[in-house]
Amino acid sequence: MKKGNGNFLTQHYEWIAITVAVVALALAAFYFVNTLNDDGEARAAEKVRRIDARKSDTNVVAPADMSMYQILMRNTQAPTAVGELNPVGYSFLASGRRVFCALPDCHAPIPPDTKQCPICKRDQPEEEAPAVVLDADGDGIPDEWERRFGLSPSNVNDADEDLDGDAFTNREEYEAGTDPSDRNSHPDYLDSLSIKLPLKQTTLPFYLRSYMKTPSGMRLEFFNPSEKNEYGARGVAYSVFVEQDIGDTGFVAKSFEQKKGTKKIAGGAGARREFDVSFATVVRKSDGKVIKVVVQSDAKKPKREPVDVQAVLVYQRGDVKEFTVVPTSKLPLSGIEYVVKEIKPVGKGALVTIVDPAGNERTIEALEQ
Questions:
Q1: What one-character-per-residue DSSP string does 268-318 give?
Q2: 336: nearest Cα among 314, 353, 316, 358
Q3: Which residues contact 44 (CB under 8 A, 6 or more apart)?
Q4: Which span out of 33-37, 86-90, 148-152, 196-200 was modeled with the highest average pLDDT?
């Protein structure tokens, strides 16, 4: 072999590579043999032992409680019933019907038909069964009440009849608790009376037109402009002395007083003029009401003096009737005579006081309209 001029590695490269490969194969074979003879379980146990040896006795983790997990697992296999459906129609989405304990110091909600309160442990009072009311003829009046007063409890509807003829039906008497067989036992007739508004003001039918002194005394002349005289003309004069009737008006001339008054003259710089203020006193014969009537000889539009407040009363029993009344007026209702005592305006309404034959007073009211 011919020697070159290169270094050692270059000259012996092939031999060096072969030597390294042989050594590597030898090491791999040795590791493989040792691995086959090694015990894996023993090696794993040794590692566990080393880990346990490093654990601290003061940092021990308690084992997990698996009881709840076990319960949940059992429930997934056999679910717990939410509630039993009530045959009455309740559902588990709504609570059942409840009542309250009858004892006021408890008053707890309890199931119905409970004889003893489960809260206070006291007995509940038993409810009385409602009374059975029989009405065989269906007229709205119980059979027992009809038999008591001689009415027909079956097959005859006699509720709208009037057994005693007092203008009230049998049903009205039953509702009022009066005797349908007794004409003197009935609801109040005044319950059917009302006031028709507005009220009116009545005046004297005449005024004092003049007076004249005569040998027989002072002659007074009253004049009624609404009446017609014997010639057909409108206006009737009543010439009377004191204590005489003023025609057929129902009034009497009771007294007379001659009197003068004065009043200022407009634009007269304080001057005054005299005028007649004489007056007569007239009395209504029916009730003795006294009214002062001033002479109006110079008046262009004579005024008649006010007398009474007048009301129209409406009676709604049987045939509807209207009565125009003033205080002291008689008021006949279904055979009973009442008397109007007072009529009083109240705003735009009114109060009317009425007296029955026994002297009992009753006030009828009408509200403002």
A1: STT-EEEEE--EEEEEETTT--EEEEE--TT-SS--PPEEEEEEEEEE-SS
A2: 358
A3: none
A4: 196-200
- Phi and psi at 352, nearest 5°, equal -120, 120
Alpha-carbon dihedral sign for residues 169, 171, 176, 179: positive
> Could you read off the pLDDT of 276-300 as tens digits, one per residue?
999 999 999 988 999 999 999 888 8
Torsion (CA) 47, 51, 53, 58 in degrees, nearest 10: -170
pLDDT at 333 over 80: yes
DSSP secondary structure code for residue 127 in this structure: P
Give the helix ranges, DSSP H, for 39-177: 40-54, 67-77, 143-148, 170-176
User: Which string of DSSP letters, residue by residue, matches 36-60?
Assistant: HT--HHHHHHHHHHHHHHH--TT-P
What pLDDT shows up at residue 200? 93
Strand duo 207-214 + 217-228: pairing? antiparallel
For residue 83, name the pLDDT band (cuts at 50, 70, 90).
Answer: very low
| pLDDT greater than 80 at residue 140 | yes
Q: Residue 290 in contact with residue 308, Cβ under 8 Å?
A: no
What CA–CA distance (Å, rounded) separates 249 from 207? 12
Nearest alpha-carbon partner for 253 in 218, 202, 301: 218
Considering Cα of 42, then 43, then 47, then 53, what sign does the dihedral take?
positive
Which amino acid is it at 71? Answer: I
Q: Is the peptide bond before 63 cis (omega within 30 degrees of 0)?
A: no
Q: Which of 170, 168, 167 is nearest to 156 (CA)?
A: 170
- The model carries a pTM of 0.52
Given a contact cutoff of 8 angstroms between Cβ atoms, the answer to whether 329 and 212 are in contact is: no
**For the segment 103-128, what is each residue's pLDDT rounded down to a tens digit?**
888 888 888 878 888 889 888 887 77
| Residue-averaged pLDDT of the chain | 82
What pLDDT, in 10s, does the model give residues 44-81? 677 667 766 665 555 556 667 776 666 666 656 655 54
Taking the C-alpha atoms of residue 274 and residue 272, their distance in angstroms, rounded to an integer, is 7
